[in-house]
Amino acid sequence: MLDANSTGSVPLATQIPLTFLMSGLAFAIMLGNAVVILAFVVDKNLRLRSNYYFLNLAISDFFVGMISIPLYIPHTLFDWNFGSGLCIFWLITDYLLCTASVYNIVLISYDRYQSVLNAVS
């Protein structure tokens, strides 16, 4: 019988395409957020107060694609058990980065709300 938290064994015919799909997703996340970071660094006109929230969101999402997702793939698909230290590192960074992304989205929403509320007529 499977545990409540176990996903069971995934057939090899399914593991290979899922591995490539998830790796491609992680690469697309890193590439897209790297372009946002690069645009912010190169174009000085983008350096407005409200755009720093987008930069912060891009940085946190870049690290989600670089750290969290690549460690999640072998853990989920291949039942790879991390060592204690790597598991703790992965959990801490995953929770920290995902929480940072959510807080950044909240801050961006609040900033947009304030800009509409206090718009110059």
UniProtKB/TrEMBL annotation:
<feature type="transmembrane region" description="Helical">
    <location>
        <begin position="20"/>
        <end position="41"/>
    </location>
</feature>
<keyword id="KW-0472">Membrane</keyword>
<dbReference type="GO" id="GO:0016907">
    <property type="term" value="F:G protein-coupled acetylcholine receptor activity"/>
</dbReference>
<dbReference type="GO" id="GO:0007197">
    <property type="term" value="P:adenylate cyclase-inhibiting G protein-coupled acetylcholine receptor signaling pathway"/>
</dbReference>
<dbReference type="GO" id="GO:0007187">
    <property type="term" value="P:G protein-coupled receptor signaling pathway, coupled to cyclic nucleotide second messenger"/>
</dbReference>
<feature type="domain" description="G-protein coupled receptors family 1 profile">
    <location>
        <begin position="32"/>
        <end position="121"/>
    </location>
</feature>
<keyword id="KW-1133">Transmembrane helix</keyword>
<dbReference type="InterPro" id="IPR000276">
    <property type="entry name" value="GPCR_Rhodpsn"/>
</dbReference>
<dbReference type="GO" id="GO:0004993">
    <property type="term" value="F:G protein-coupled serotonin receptor activity"/>
</dbReference>
<comment type="similarity">
    <text>Belongs to the G-protein coupled receptor 1 family.</text>
</comment>
<dbReference type="InterPro" id="IPR017452">
    <property type="entry name" value="GPCR_Rhodpsn_7TM"/>
</dbReference>
<keyword id="KW-0812">Transmembrane</keyword>
<keyword id="KW-0297">G-protein coupled receptor</keyword>
<keyword id="KW-0675">Receptor</keyword>
<feature type="transmembrane region" description="Helical">
    <location>
        <begin position="53"/>
        <end position="73"/>
    </location>
</feature>
<dbReference type="Pfam" id="PF00001">
    <property type="entry name" value="7tm_1"/>
</dbReference>
<dbReference type="GO" id="GO:0030425">
    <property type="term" value="C:dendrite"/>
</dbReference>
<dbReference type="GO" id="GO:0045202">
    <property type="term" value="C:synapse"/>
</dbReference>
<keyword id="KW-0807">Transducer</keyword>
<keyword id="KW-1003">Cell membrane</keyword>
<protein>
    <recommendedName>
        <fullName>G-protein coupled receptors family 1 profile domain-containing protein</fullName>
    </recommendedName>
</protein>
<feature type="transmembrane region" description="Helical">
    <location>
        <begin position="88"/>
        <end position="108"/>
    </location>
</feature>
<dbReference type="GO" id="GO:0005886">
    <property type="term" value="C:plasma membrane"/>
</dbReference>
